Every structure is written in structure tokens, then in C-alpha cells.
Sequence to fold (544 residues):
Amino acid sequence: MPVTDLLERNHKLYGDEVALVELNPLMKDTRKTTWKEYDLVQQTSPVAYRREITWSVFDEKANRVANMLLGRGIKKGDRVAILMFNCLEWLPIYFGILKTGAIAVPFNFRFSADEIQYCADLAQVHILFFGSEFIGRIESIADELQKGRLLIYVGDGCPTFAESYRELVADCSSQAPLVRLEEEDDAAIYFSSGTTGFPKAILHNHESLSQAAQMEQKHHLTSRDDVFLCIPPLYHTGAKFHWMGSLYAGSKAVLLKGTTPEIILDAVSKEKCTIVWLLVPWAQDILAALDRGDIKLEDYKLDQWRLMHIGAQPVPPSLIRRWKQYFPHHKYDTNYGLSESTGPGCVHLGLDNIDKVGSIGIPGYRWSCKIVDESGNEVKQGEVGELCVKGPGVMTCYYNDPKATAETLKNGWLYTGDMAMQDEDGFYFLVDRKKDVIVSGGENIYPVQIENFLSAYEKVQDVAVIGLPDSRLGEITGAVIQVKDGMECTEEEINEYCQKLPRYKRPKKVIFAEVPRNATGKIEKPALRKKYGAEHLVAQQNLA
Fold:
């Protein structure tokens, strides 16, 4: 069943009920914030507001988008991108794209202009929807971006190089378009990263999206009475597909812009949220605020909050032990996954397995797992190897990249690049990463991008970027810099130079030392990780 059928079902059955709430609490004025300073969650207004739409309005808006796109020549298999912060327009646009049979292509809102251009070209995007916060970046590449593409602006004050979303959809039909969709039809492209640091386009079909919706509902027993609090950005597979449990159940969800402990607990209290997905740093911040007495649980209505689930990075068992002291009635789940597996859930702990905290869990609904050695042979239980997953949520391919696809997909199995072991009870534990990716606070950071940037600095002879242990973020980015002979360099100089990078990519620690390379010229990162206490970093986090 195509996932769009669920939206149409909810329209028919629950049309007058609230589907989505957009909640922007009163925050400091961020109008002077440049895009390079954007957080993972971003307010879009210095003024507090609350907006909501019903299931019928949600579906009708999606239909208007679909009919507008069809009227502009979009057909099955075409690619349509979204570059927007979380808002009430995001999901109707996404589903409107899907209803045409086109492929929805969400962009990370922290992409630089050249990354936006690169991804638009890689995915061969025909149309790009973008919000007001991205005018500067889009304008800087508009001449090139517009070649063969339509740019659609979502917001007030449409720039001259784009067309207005509101004007385009105003007179379009709210009836469902007559486009037949099948589960095997291509549906969405999400972005990961390759060895070059530039994104790879991950193609999923409608079966993947429907699988994610069913799985999320089954894993967390989401009912019509539940209210899901969604904080991470919707371009992220985790946020989108966790929300789809609410879509499957026909229940309400709240899109929250803000991550302070006060904002989160206030939203849970006032919106009567029952299910909350947190990233590790946000959970740590809530616990720290409770420990300090900055917030008091009795000031909020939290009895209805039944489930806290967490993911995107290894979860320290100590965090969950502390959490249960404050919230003893909470069910708890952690989820593991990749964009290539339609986000989290291909492995999950399960609501009744809190005694196995530290494990990523067991195979999720309709998923299988195995651990293999370098030759692809399964290892014995208790031995370490590469984790492989198989199920209806596995990607179709890396778009237009058969070589990378063949390296990652083998006989239906997705090779994750994560090293794991299985205990005697069948639970899987992450041990280390085969790839160099750094996961800091749930954000994937690719060292090659930062290494290439730092290597251009006139005083840098060589550079290696690795993940270093951090109690709050799991990992932080560390730059090992070898200075050119006869020159002197300070951490302050490097930090100043790195202001040109988005904040989340800037090294949090600078180490001046020799960068070891092997006979073929490859950086010996395992040696660096061992030297600076980052060996088996994932296992360290699991034991914390």
C-alpha cells in the first residue's frame, strides 16, 4: 500500500480531528543569525505562535500541491526537492509530491549553497520548494540552479527569481489526482555521504515508506489517543518516519521548535504528549536541569507521557538509569538505523527490554540481521563483525551510482559499516564503526569535508579529523593538525579560520601533532583514535 493511502484514509475517517500542530515558543530574536550558526532545530520567528491543521485540511493541501505540480508538467519519476524548516507546510508538500508519482527529495537545511547545487544536480531535481530562510543561499546560485528547474518560494515576499507557492496552489483542485501508485514505484531520495564527503542520493520506493509507518506503530503501540512530540527536522529520516507511526494510527503530532528542557516539558504538558523522541543531548539537558533544580516536575502535567524513545547515537546506560529515577513509569525504547534502511527501527530495543540497555536491540518488525566477517561469512555468536540488515525498508539503490550500490547491497542485505556483536540472548551491541563518520549529538559529520577545508589554510601541512569522546554529545570533532616546518600556529587561529564553516562542522578540539600515514598515503586513523582515547568509541558510550 502506498503511504499516501494512509493520509486519504485519515481524511475520510478522522477529517475534523487535528493532525498536526506547529509550536514555536517565544525565544530570543534570531533574525541576525546567519545560516552557518543554525542549530539542528531552528525557530523561524522571534514571536511565539501555535498553528494546527486537521486531517482533511492536510490531505486537501497535499492534493492542491499535487495538482499544481501536475499542471506544471511533473510526471511519475520526476524529482521534486524540499528545502524548508519544520512547519505545517512541510508534510503537505511532501505528500503532494508523492501523490503525483514524483520522487520527494528533502534537503538538509544546513547545506551550503554549493551542497544545494550539488544535490540538485545529483538527484536531477526538476523543482525546488524553499523557505524564506534560504533566500540568500538560493539567490547566490540562482542562475545555475534555474537551468531546467522551477524554484517555488514558500513564505511572504517572494523573490523575483522564484514563483510564489501560495499563488500557485490557490486555485488548484483539492481533489485527489488520478495517479495510480504501486509499492514498487520510486518515492523518495534522502542524502547520506560517501568517502568524498559529498552526499550520496539514497532512493527508496513506496514500500519502504509504508514499512516505516507500520513498523513505528507496531514498535511503540501508537494508538488514536497518542500525541507524538516531533522535535528533530523533517528532512531527517528519523523524524519523518517516527512521525509516520502517528500517520498510521491516525493520531495527532506536534512539531516543536525548541530544545531547552523548559520548552520540551512545557510542550509535553500543554499539548498532552504521550510519546516523545529525544536525542541524547536533549535528554542529558533535561536531567541536568532537574538535578540543578532549574525545573521541577510538579510544575508540569506529565502523567500522560508514557514513552520516551531515543536514538541517532549510542545511548549511555547511565542516562537511562538516571531517567528512570525521575520518570519511573516511562516505557523506553532505542532505535538503530540508517538513511539506507529508511531511518531508525530496523533494530530496536523493544518496550519490555530495559534490562538490555546498552544494546541496540533485536531485529525490528519484518527485519532480519546478521554479523559477517571481511569475507561476508557469518561469525559465531559473541564475535565481532559487520552488521548487515535485510527487510522491506532497504533502499532501492544509490541513485545513478551502481558501483556504490553494489558495495553496500549484496543479495538483498544492506552492509551498514557498523561493527557489532550478538549476545547469548540474541541482542545486538554496537562495538565500533567501520566508516569514518562522526556522530555528534545525532548529526552525521564527515571528516573529509573538514580535512579538505583545513588543508587549505596556509600554515597546515597535514590534517586528520577524528571523533573524540564526549559525555553529552557522544562524540565531538577533533582536528589533528601538522603545522608546516618553520611556522607557528595557534588554536585561536584555527578557530577563527573555521568561522567560515557551519557551526556543527567546526572542530571542537584542536591538537597540534604529526599526522601518521601508511605506505599508500592513507591517514592511519585507528592509530590516532588509540592515541587520543577514542578507540572503540561506540563501545565506550555503551558502557557509560
